[in-house]
Amino acid sequence: MIVGKSIPRIDARDKATGRTMYTDDLCDRRALIAKIKHSTVAHAYVKSVDISEAEKIPGVVKIVTCFDVPDFKFPTAGHPWSTDPHHQDVCDRVLLTKHVLYYGDDVAAVVAEDEISAADAVRAIKVEYEELPFVLDVQEAMKDGAPQLHEAYPNNILNHTSYRSGNYEEAIKDPGLIKVEGWYDTPTVQHCHIENFVCFASRENEKLVVVTSTQIPHIVRRVVGQALGIPWGRVRVIKPYVGGGFGNKQDVLYEPLCAFLSESVGGRLVKLECTREETFCNNRVRHAIRSHITTYCRKDGTLVARKLECFSNQGAYASHGHAIVAKGMGAFHQLYPCPNVESDSWTVFTNRQVGGAMRSYGMAQAIFAVESHSDDICRAIGMDPMEFRRKNLMPKGYVDPFSKNEQYYDTFNQCFDKGAAYIGYNEKYKAYQNQSGPVRRGIGFAPLWYNTAVWPIALETAACRMILNQDGSVQMQVGDTEIGQGADTAFSQMAAETIGLPFDKIHILSCQDTDVTPFGTGAYASRQTYVTGMAVRDCAERLKDKILKTAYRYTRMQPYLMDIQDGNIVRVTDGRVLMSVGDLAMSALYDLDNSIHITAETTTQTKSNAYSFGCCFAEVEVDIPLCRVRLLNIINVHDCGRLINPALAAAQVEGGMSMGIGYALSEKMIYDQKTGRLLNGNLLDYKLSTFMDHPHLEAQFVENYEPTSAYGTKALGEPPVVPVAPAIRAAILQATGVPMYELPMDPHQLFRRFKEEHLI
Amino acid sequence: MYDIKALYEATSVDHAVQLLLEHPQALIIAGGSDVLIKIREGSLAKVELVSIYKLDALRGITKEADGTIRIGSLTSFSHIHADPYIQKHIDVLGDAVNMVGGPQIRAIGTIGGNTCNGVTSADSASTLFAYDAEIEITGPEGVRICPISKFYLGVGKVDLRPGELQTAILIRKESYTGYKGHYIKYGMRNAMEIATTGCSVNVKLSQDKKTLKDIRIAYGVAAPIPIRALKTEEAIRGRKLSAEVREEIGRLVLEDVTPRNSWRASRDLRLQLCSTLAMRAFEEAVKKAGGEIDG
Lengths: 760, 295
Fold this sequence. Notes:
heterodimer; A: 760 residues; alpha+beta; Aldehyde Oxidoreductase, domain 3; Aldehyde Oxidoreductase, domain 4; 4 domains; five-stranded mixed sheet; 20 helices; B: 3 domains; five-stranded antiparallel sheet
């Protein structure tokens, strides 16, 4: 068995020794350097751009302003194309903008011989603005008379969707019900992957070649074509190794601008690299979502009627748009089935950084709101938080009528039992009741819910190609991407398992090149082990079938009498090794009568989806006078089906927990209310948590085999971030008796709340 | 790429003085952990630099004949943290500089740079204030000594005149003998952080460990520059150790500090911290000095 083993990552040695080549490493040092002139106002029309001084700076090759770019509107979200125009992403971007929509928007670009001349020129460009009022708050932006960002969206509402079941208004008339209501606010945060966005572009013959640090090379190709108004086939996108993306690079970022700049200097090589400050200000962020939840329940915790309203702060451009908050809203009625539910969600433009995809795609926001509210219900009715969850969470046998997803197992209880046993939940929960004094401890937990992949909301397709080499090894290519998560290793394990080869006989080509690699939409939605796994399985079975059929020529055994085991062709009836796959490959390729190069290629569409579940338990110490939380212990338990590689799975969980800890306790983008400027867009002032802020991160699993999956697996990439913040919130609540309603639960927030509740 | 117009490398302290006089617009660069960041941001584009980094004479910690501890201005944080004199006599300073940034910054960053920046948040500054450190400055006229409380002139401004550089930090024997201190850096995370507020307290106890013969309380980020809580010190000096005294410190320091509202932290939060940190640092310092506070 190769699937299920903790095989070291195939790229581990190169990455650990610094040999791996990332985008910037690959760029010819002679490349011209592009830098962007960003706006210094939050909302304005550009009246003029004066480049006369900038052009005089030695080394400057070309300056392009918002008045020089083509008027092709394009989308940026890394979503599959839809053939239904109503389901296509909003096209609201141009390469450089005359209508500035956030502080830092792109108004001009410089191409220069080197970085210093480029930076000098950017400083020397003078922009004249006609300033407009701006709006930063999501609910302010919806009001009549608020500053308007996009003409086509009155009250700045990009989208509003609803869900209804039963009859909420009637149900709440029952006089015996207890009403619990709360507002839950989450901040704008950034992905903070190690490798900033970087790309370079040049023309080779008539092709525009873009090498970029992206999660979605095939989508980048399409959008570069859309933005420049050229046929998609004229664009070639190459994706080398990527130093993390977490969803930020599930957007088309500056590839279209870089390609355009290269074209504007005759196809010369142009590199565009974001600084860390630009990564914060000018890439994508996690949507800040404000949720309002009202629950009517009985004293025993029975849910009678529930209402959810979510306001998602989109920032200046549509990007992934409403999909984010819609995913969270979809979880609400599935996670806690209730006969009467009303949900509404709005996605609203504001003059802030652009919300895009970020690890968990709205679920971290939603689960913080929903699970914080669960704890508030427990507090209101005096119910044990564990009992409430065990009573109300999606039970075994639950089927969602829309996605057809099914809860096949008693997974929540299994995960809770495992997490509680590790952390000593029951004992500590009792021990920490009714404390006094300045420093107190608490323990809490929260479940998580996730959907693997995007079917049936959007297309799920993946492709795989395999070629048998002379030595019996296999070259494999997929369209889906390794971005640091370990996808290449997992795919290789799957292929080795299905074909019957030793693991080291699989050579996956990590780099995607849209001219060479089969199609794939990329790394997002925690989809690849599930969706791409289907293509790998299908392709491996086809290849194996061809190998055995070809082997008939040399072994004279019927294909059904043979199998491939550990790189050998074996007769199944008696286990005799007939020949090695390598010998077969040589015989077949160099056969003087009938040479055959054994290959397989397949495209697999996935029309199923799978729930992924888990939970987090957290134990904290709260220093009340110092308004600070120390995380003492934490565990995540996940049911992501069968583990392909347990060590890599644990690594995913640890990374997600770290992200969750920062989300819970320290990370937040802060805005100057007077100008709309992002104040802390750097790694000093933005409080990404460090390993000094983490206790040991424990990752455990419940391996319930996913029946719809090629290898029994399902989503794990994103889910680990989801339950951490509400678990920590629950622990703080137990320690202090003070519910928190806003993330992060940093000293500023604790100070405010402890003052309000007279603890200090 | 760093946009540096010229780099003048000093080969001796005298040479550095000469270079600074020849290039009055030039900035001094030592470890570079602050200057290079500003250059990268573009706020110092086309800067001229006088590098003193190679002046090994300014590196290291020595004990002079009169007991003064002399810290060369180019001594790195990690060096100070590991130094036996510091560990023996002013361990709190070693602890404080061990909270700067992360390991790489502590290996490159210097105590001279930390103090010459003139920022209130410098991790070394509050403890140096608390120990009445003196600053040795070398310039065209020779060497002069300036108490650290006079060295800081305002936000980002220190008392360095044309052609001058800081060459050492001196801590006199009477300033450290018999004193034990504790520094608390309060930040929003536990590494890679500048202080939201920092408090350094040291005490000298009576023979029987019951009375406070002396107390010194210093803060970073409680005012535009590092400060001493002099009124509180005055009121508490000579008192018997007790829980009431601790609480009184917590109240009194609020009269000494003048933190500002900023997006990094509100004045109210900083006041809460100033009070709590003083009490906590006081308690730790007393413990280290062998005393006890009941309750």
